């Protein structure tokens, strides 16, 4: 059972074989999330389908998402810097800042850890914290994804949300820096 | 002052290109009359000579030099230099130091070729210095792609061949630089970093080839070693550590698990020039718990003998099958020959992450098992087959999906990547070990997602043995008798690569108290220590310039050493602060 599911996932994720260079994604696929973009599932059986508000359970593990241009239906999955994580937090656990960006308790953040750029894929259920598996940085999604513990230097970039026709949509561009700092690298052109 | 080279303006900043200036001057000289040329020739000579590195020099390096990761192809980490010795090591003082300008784990050895030193730092920076004066000759910086996952921000050093040096990069490329200027000669991708591949090891240079392996055992890669032509960067051969369909060993992987089965190679291999064979340690299979991939999972957690010319697999030994503990066996075995029962045993010696010290024999026909014994507390192996060396397991200490199991040593093993050293003078092998640590792990059913973490496991608990008074150890083992000669204990964990010298000294850092230590190689008595800027996980080296012997090491705490310390703090309720930041330190005798 597990084997079958994983094999499918492998085939899908690999797409082109490693020895065939992938085609350059079109500009709209790598553009950052735009206001009005709809959030779609990045993984699983409902990949590329819009995420309905009703499908996001409070306190549940984060859903991985990408923004999609609702007109062209182009998913902006050409760069992993557009990878988003979505969770729903009880109103009592939301800071004022985060409440202003939330849609009915649902918040979205960049899925790229600010420490060394790994994917923030783990969920600490008791504390309702987002966690990076690489070096165990934990973020509080109820409070602007501030760093609770671990080596991450700053919070995850936040993506303000709204609800359009019952599905999650982008209300405003990212707040904060997406990606991680590269110490010692040249500091600009 | 800060002259950027036009060709690599984004990547290379050339601070003091003494060599290129000299070359420009040299060209101008050609326009002058012969007499003028004769007069000017001396002044127009390159400001520094650079001794081309030949195969012969790599096989038999001058005592004064340290030309590769472990100095010699046998991976001894030994220098015959003896001006610094047990009688005077107390007089060792720093003679120059330099900030690397970056953070994270500084692990590379200062590589020295006739007075020119090269170090690498995290984020794939290379710095070239005058090894005696500390003058910075050039600096190469590399901008990482913004979407990279920098799981292990570190680099373990350069390889030298001809007038070039070579570095494997975090974005899965090999870059060749002109050793005199730092200019990029070629830059070749060996894999796609978005697929979870990255590189941290110092390449192995031999027979006109630059050999590297790939990291990513936690990200669903299929490991390999690739040899590139040193002049052009084009691929000469590539050998996967996981056999494909139709190849022997493929049957040790169910279904498609081989495609994402890990088996990375991230520490420099050893080389036996007489046999023409390179020896590589391979890392863990993935995902972490073995029930996700029932079978032996060849050739993970193994040593491979690869033909240097063709890459053909000529032998292997798997230290432990169906790894379920994240016990990479990436350190290459040391090639140590001993006399036993009236014959020379051409040995392979490996202090393993699985907590056992392995003695194997190498030959043209392959690798055979000799003996193995634990050097730290190990509760997984119940026995070792005396003929094959295959261990049997206590299943209660083997984690699986939905089954949490505790095991010792921890997932970082008895010894992780920091290299052991061997001294032919003492006949002792020096192992940087960690004792008294255990892990608890439980697998889950996480699916593969390209490039993402694919351990499919949670490390639930990390424990320090009750009543433990120490964690780190420097152990010395007699290779001939296979008995332990001495042990030095540290309260701190030990992540210190080891240097052994002809002066009868063993050097290492490794502890969170930031000390660089010197021990009597025969007795283990501590003779000297010096407190540096940060914790030392760098490989120490020694070299001679102008008749003076120097010892050099980078200090800069980070990556797994920091990760383990965090786990120990959590288990003990302590808070050990070791600020990051890299510095290269160079020591010599006060009375030099």
| Biggest interchain interface, per-side counts | A-B, 33 and 45 residues
Please give the count of helices of chain B.
Answer: 4
**Shape field of chain A:** globular
Straight-line N-to-C gap of chain A: 51 Å
Low-confidence stretches of chain B: 1-46
Which structural class do you get from the secondary structure elements of chain A? alpha+beta
- Overall strand count of chain A: 11
Element-by-element helix/strand order of chain A: HHEEEHEEEEEEEE
**Averaged pLDDT of chain A, please?**
87
Secondary-structure-based class of chain B equals: mainly beta
Mean pLDDT of chain B: 93
Strand order of the largest sheet of chain B: 1-2-9-8-7-6
Task: State the share of residues found in helices of chain B, binned by percent.
Answer: under 10%
Q: What is the first-to-last residue Cα distance of chain B? A: 34 Å
Characterize the main sheet of chain A.
5 strands, antiparallel
This entry's quaternary arrangement is heterodimer
Low-confidence stretches of chain A: 1-20, 184-189
In percent terms, what proportion of residues of chain A is strand?
15-25%
Strand arrangement within the widest β-sheet of chain A reads: 1-2-3-4-9
Main sheet overview of chain B: 6 strands, antiparallel
* Large-scale geometry of chain B: globular
Description:
The complex is a heterodimer of chains A (189) and B (592). With 189 residues, chain A is an alpha+beta fold. Chain A is 12% helix and 23% strand. Chain A contains 3 helices and 11 strands, in the order H-H-E-E-E-H-E-E-E-E-E-E-E-E. The longest helix of chain A is centred in the N-terminal third of the chain and has 13 residues, at 2-14. Chain A is globular. Helix content of chain B is 7%, strand content 37%. Chain B has 4 helices and 42 strands. In chain B, strands 1-2-9-8-7-6 form a 6-stranded antiparallel sheet, with no helix packed on it. In chain B, strands 3-36-37-38-39 form a 5-stranded mixed sheet, with no helix packed on it. A 4-stranded antiparallel sheet of chain B has the order 4-42-41-40, with no helix packed on it. The longest helix of chain B has 14 residues, at 559-572. The two termini of chain B are 34 Å apart. Classes of the chains: A alpha+beta (189), B mainly beta (592).
